[in-house]
Design goal:
alpha/beta; 20 helices; TIM Barrel; two-stranded antiparallel sheet; 11% strand; 8-stranded parallel β-barrel; 42% helix
Length: 532
């Protein structure tokens, strides 16, 4: 079967439509019956190019999105599977990709995934081994023929034909929060994302911002707008920040409260609102819409598509109806007062500079003295590390290092440290989702999705530390590989100085040459380290 979804996105004359279906817990419950019945109607109706299947929405267990995608494809309509990084390590991620390739399910929306909140006998242990940039890189390599170890060197696995996409949220209030979203978007696209879907909000200028950022950055790939049919109950939940990443302001909630007093409880108003969103997204230049809504029926999806197409010629008239900004919110571009959207010129971000803290100044001095390959002291430190490596002093040295880093950063002793990349903040201990290349989409007003009003997002803190020194763009340009767990519980300092961790290839760090006798002695020590 041809990939109708991919064709619809790449064909400039087609406005692509996807419809989101949300599976529930269980194998044969009503939620699953609704998914299959909806898929059958959509396949017959012909107006939906793909059905998107969520993966454990809200962090709750549900029937596998992969399985539903395989079954839905048999019904004659394309699935777009939400492929998240949660609940599985990199081996399981690769295994699932092999299965999807075998079942010819090519369309994937790669995301971090909602933080798990419940499971059998309590909350499960979170697993975030890879972030979306890592998964996109893996998919890209699989499409080219993944090279894997073989008895004689390496071998290439049969190339796959995945069409992976990624998400971005323009609906962030703080500068650091929004800019780091776009920094991560750049990494996702460079890693192999073939299309982008926005997060959910009701600010037309913010939708335009995401589209304009992509186009002005020179990325020629399809962009899809997120359109959610919003009843009052769901809006109240989003307004309370109980659905991470989805923004509903107090003003919009008040408007919905008035609408629900109608005889139809606001149904006509919310469907018309959705049709207007369809119209202005098509008018702005989006390549499609992603339609969602709790309990949404296929005939309502058809109404939104047909009515949206009817309203499209006058799309600019509806922009002012979606003026629900976050109070004091940051916009990446200056406002165009004529259209109510954005001008092409970015907002001047030079006026705000966070203060330089003593703590971070101390870390910078330490880094410059001991961890800068260009510093005159680096070679002597390397020689010290080489002598320490594999010796009787390595274990006590590693223990002292760990104690120091626990006190400063709650170190998890991964051995493949990213402190040097993130302004001396640890993504393993200070980000519940272990994001090594940018924030997830769940933060709200700068607060971590998992610890609202308690803990600031580590990527926002990192941006602010670096911006104080006009170095914030290093977060945009540095892609950090996943943790190499072969190095777990070894000295990250020794690994850095000897070029063993991810920094070695990036910085060109090579260990100093050793005398032949010393090399022989160290051979056994490295074997011991691998066993650890």
């Amino acid at each position: 079967m041809e990939n109708r979804f991919k064709q619809s996105l790449l064909d400039k004359s087609t406005f692509s439509v996807t419809w989101e279906l949300v599976p529930g817990r269980g194998a044969r419950e009503k939620a699953q019956d609704v998914v299959f019945a909806s898929a059958e109607l959509a396949a017959r109706g012909g107006k939906v190019h793909a059905l998107t299947i969520t993966d454990n929405p809200g962090g709750n267990p549900a029937i596998s999105a992969d399985y539903l995608g395989m079954e839905i494809r048999k019904m004659g309509i394309e699935p777009l599977v939400h492929f998240t990084c949660k609940d599985k390590n990199r081996n399981q991620i690769e295994s699932e990709l092999h299965a999807l390739a075998r079942a010819e399910v090519p369309n994937l929306l790669v995301m971090s995934g909602d933080y798990p909140v419940s499971g059998y006998q309590g909350r499960p242990r979170p697993v975030y081994d890879l972030d979306p940039t890592h998964v996109l890189s893996l998919i890209n390599e699989m499409n080219q023929g993944l090279e894997v170890p073989a008895p004689k060197g390496t071998a290439k696995i049969t190339p796959t034909d995945f069409f992976p996409g990624a998400a971005v949220s323009p609906f962030k209030r703080e500068e650091a929060e929004q800019v780091t979203q776009y920094y991560k978007l750049k990494k996702k696209i460079e890693a192999g994302a073939k299309f982008i879907i926005t997060q959910l909000g009701y600010d037309a200028r913010k939708f335009h911002e995401a589209l304009q950022f992509i186009r002005l950055s020179g990325w020629d790939l399809p962009v899809v707008g997120n359109l959610y049919v919003l009843p009052y109950g769901a809006a109240r939940t989003m307004n309370a920040n109980l659905v991470p990443g989805c923004v509903v302001t107090d003003e919009l909630l008040a408007a919905l409260d008035k609408e629900r007093t109608a005889a139809d409880k606001g149904k006509e108003a919310r469907l018309l609102r959705s049709a207007k969103m369809y119209a202005f997204m098509k008018g702005m230049g989006f390549d499609g819409v992603h339609i969602g809504g709790h309990g949404l029926k296929y005939e309502e999806v058809e109404y939104i598509v047909d009515k949206g197409h009817e309203l499209y010629p006058n799309w600019q008239e509806y922009v002012h109806e979606f003026d629900y900004p976050m109070k004091g919110g940051f916009y990446y571009f200056r406002k165009d007062d004529r259209t109510g959207l954005n001008a092409a010129e970015p907002t001047d971000r030079s006026g705000w500079r966070p203060r330089k803290t003593f703590r971070y100044r101390t870390f910078r001095l330490l880094h410059h003295t001991l961890f800068n390959p260009k510093n005159i002291l680096f070679r002597p430190v390397q020689a010290f590390a080489s002598a320490m490596d594999g010796s009787a002093l390595e274990k006590p040295f590693t223990a002292l290092e760990h104690l120091a880093k626990v006190a400063s950063n709650n170190c998890q002793q991964c051995g493949d440290c990213a402190l040097f990349d993130m302004a001396y903040l640890c993504p393993l201990s200070q980000c519940p989702k272990n994001q090594r290349n940018g924030p997830c989409g769940g933060s709200f007003e700068g607060w971590c999705e998992v610890y609202p009003n308690e803990r600031k997002c580590v990527w926002i803190r990192s941006y602010e530390r670096l911006k104080a020194y006009r170095e914030e763009e290093t977060l945009r340009d540095t892609r950090i590989p996943p943790v190499n767990w072969d190095l777990y519980h070894t000295s990250s300092w020794i690994n850095f100085w000897l070029g063993r961790d991810h920094s070695g290839p990036q910085l060109g760090i090579k260990p100093p040459r050793k005398r032949s006798g010393q090399q022989a002695a160290d051979g056994g020590a490295k074997g011991d380290a691998a066993a650890r």
